[in-house]
Design a protein that fits this description.
Helix 1 packs antiparallel against helix 4, helix 2 runs antiparallel to helix 3 and helix 4 packs antiparallel against helix 5. Helices cover about 65% and strands about 0% of the residues. By secondary structure, the chain is mainly alpha-helical. The radius of gyration is 18 Å and the shape is elongated.
Length: about 160
């Protein structure tokens, strides 16, 4: 699939910026974690761990479908987690970041997550355009039935 030229480098930059901000704020300077320090760590982890578990599940299952299954001829992937959302690998990354925020309550990392989401959303939109060019009506039909980030409750036919 044709990815945006800035995709890989952009995701690395996003991860480094998020990780540095999250680590420094959560464990060193603690500038924005104060308001959430009243929430016990057990509560924070009880929220973060299921988010991470779901991120691992959708990340691994979508990775297996995309990279380990042979599709000849190439076709739109509509099974597994792809039957719910169009970008499960990207969603897994966003959920991982969200879990880190939930684990420590670093509001700074939550603020950093906003532009990361917009960057990844831009990458997803770029890829969707390329997939529409490649697969035409098959991909447009798939888009009507699935959400980019959240499963559609009502699927258009």
């Amino acid at each position: 699939m044709d990815e945006h030229p800035a995709n890989d480098a952009g995701q690395i930059v996003c991860f480094v910026i998020f990780a540095v901000c999250w680590i420094l704020d959560s464990f060193v300077f603690r500038l924005s974690v104060g308001p959430l320090e009243i929430v016990p760590l057990a509560v924070k982890l009880s929220l973060a761990i299921p988010v991470w578990a779901f991120a691992v599940y959708i990340g691994l299952t979508s990775h297996t479908i995309v990279f380990k299954e042979v599709r000849n001829p190439p076709a739109v992937i509509t099974k597994g987690v792809f039957s719910w959302i169009r970008h499960p690998l990207y969603a897994a990354g966003l959920l991982f970041y969200t879990g880190l925020f939930l684990a420590t309550g670093s509001l700074c990392s939550l603020v950093i997550l906003m532009p990361i989401f917009f960057f990844i959303n831009h990458m997803a939109a770029f890829e969707e355009k390329k997939l529409e060019e490649k697969f035409g009506d098959a991909y447009r039909s798939y888009k009507k039935k699935t959400g980019r980030w959240f499963p559609k409750l009502y699927k258009k036919t």
